[in-house]
Amino acid sequence: MARPRSFDRDHVLHAAERQFRASGYNGTSVDDISAATGLGRGSLYGAFDGKHGVLLEAMAGYFGRLAQGPRKMLDGPDEGALERLHAYLLRAVHGVPLAPDVAPASDRAGAACFAAKMALEVGASDPEVKRLANDCFSVVRAAVAECVRAAQRNGDLDPDADPDDLAYLLLTVIRGSDVVGAYGHSPDRLTSIAESAFALLPRPRHT
Amino acid sequence: MARPRSFDRDHVLHAAERQFRASGYNGTSVDDISAATGLGRGSLYGAFDGKHGVLLEAMAGYFGRLAQGPRKMLDGPDEGALERLHAYLLRAVHGVPLAPDVAPASDRAGAACFAAKMALEVGASDPEVKRLANDCFSVVRAAVAECVRAAQRNGDLDPDADPDDLAYLLLTVIRGSDVVGAYGHSPDRLTSIAESAFALLPRPRHT
DNA sequence: ACGCTTCTTGACAAGTCAGTACAGAACTGC
DNA sequence: GCAGTTCTGTACTGACTTGTCAAGAAGCGT
Question: Which InterPro entries does the record match to this protein (chains A, B) (predicted)?
């Protein structure tokens, strides 16, 4: 019937995401997006709905990828749940909350959670961004909480601890490492932060 | 000799900080700063050096205020160090890393650490902002580490734990609560995050 | 009271921004 | 091969941006 699109939508959104990450939302112009994606202005406005539309769709795409990561790494049998949580924590503080098969970003700053970055920059005045970011946080938190519960069932964590509280705390550590880690601290430091957090998780009291 | 300035420099910088907080760096125009501070364009360029200069000085002012808060709350005798740490944590996760005499901000989002916000938005391409933010983090971290050491000396924390590791971890929790707390979570949730973190601090093993 | 220096105000110019419109290209279906 | 539809690229517009400049106001010292 008509001419098909000559670009891959997801690929374009990913390129836009990188650009937003590097320069922030207000720091990137439509021309920047155009250059980063290779698309002309017209195509951008046709396929998405301008700059804001690109952001929302890029965040949605990020959410889609993000949602699978923790589940893949954390879901599973009760045995090994604590080890899975350990492995996930170590990855997540380095800004790689995705599945094990995606390579870590070369620079920690660029790897900071996209949702968190956008939420902090424009979330206060942009309810849609705020909501998308919250979705990102929730999906991670839910997966972590479930993994904590599994570890509790397996007797690896104190059953009296509130798994939701622990999940919130771990999520907070992960988000915090985006900020702390992005600027001035070595990967080793991030690793030791993750190890410290993990080591402090409440073990069952062996009576 | 000459006409003196008709405005209070610190007051202006504080107003600019609020504006930067609300709209981000790239999201606020010089006119916005002008409106927020009441200063005309010319005065802004005369007193500071344009928008970027205002940001740097506002961050420096923030640093100055920030640096005193943790010290005031955390420094002191070894007895009570753990309690001081507890009180500080509770305040800090609510975005009030300042001295006890400054009132908490009404909105958690606006209270997110100014340095962290700016660093995340423009730090990647702005070394000066990056450095200032790191200074802010360091001063808090050093005060926390010292307080941890005091608590260890007093026998309230496990002396085998690395105080610097703990300080990094706590700083990360505080920074993370800027992000987690700013969007969608209640103050109660933040309090419980702080309490969880505090409860997990390694107590001395009573043989 | 006067001159000097600095501050303040408003306006200005050059550049950039987002979004639109239009013309041409490309592909599908027949 | 042709018609129709959609995509693509570019040029354009109006608004907004930053930084500068010059003229007037305000205080200080004498």
Answer: DNA-bd_HTH_TetR-type_CS, Homeodomain-like_sf, HTH_TetR, Tet_transcr_reg_TetR-rel_C_sf, TetR_C
